[in-house]
Specification:
The protein is mainly alpha-helical. The chain has two domains: 114 residues, Arc Repressor Mutant, subunit A (Orthogonal Bundle); 98 residues, no CATH class. The chain has eleven helices and two strands. The protein has a two-stranded antiparallel ribbon with strand order 1-2. Strand 1 and strand 2 form a beta hairpin. It is elongated.
Amino acid sequence: MTEKVERPNYYAIIPASVRYDNNLPGKASLLYGEITALCNQKGYCWASDSYFANLYGVSKQTIQNWLKALENNGHIVREVIYEEGTQKILHRYIKILVYPTQNNLHTPTQNNLGVNNTSINTTVNNTSNKKHSAANATPLVQLKKDFEEIWKEYPNKQDKGRAFNHYKAWRKKSVNHNNAYLFERLRLYKKHLAANPWKSPMNGSTWFNGRFTDDYELTSSGNSSNNTAPQTREDWFG
């Protein structure tokens, strides 16, 4: 029986990193947009290869090739849930990885998966560690992209290699460890440096080795009224 194709009435997101990725074949970028629409509707994308094949009028093999390309290039991650003790697939879901879209989409949980597939309610095994698994599953290519975004804003570009290793280890500890948090910490650190111009920025590898959690003094240590620090992101990064 052919799976019914329903076009969701939700907006799709195709960021520049996907639109201009020359490594993506065919309509893979459009497929990415469809995935974001489904993620915004339910909190995750559960659609099968047959669904997408019918939607775009191509073979399931073509869809598999597009999904593989999206995953290999760090735009999505696929996770499969098996029936406990077997290799029978109960559910597959797709998560968007490209920052910042991932912060606007919901990560699937045991509960919302159960709402849409009742057979999963009593057969999914070890889902309590899913958040930690998702963090560890972030592809290296995506971690590199995310790191480059914040590295280009850091004022002391020394020991980039070690800085990335620290960043990578920190990111893989939790899905809550993301660039949104680091950009806020960097904004505060730059504000601290502006208020204390006698201080030099830390070596890049030092700051990324957990020093971004420091408490920063945001007022000038001097008496000059000319030490007013910029207040907006544009002032800092513009």
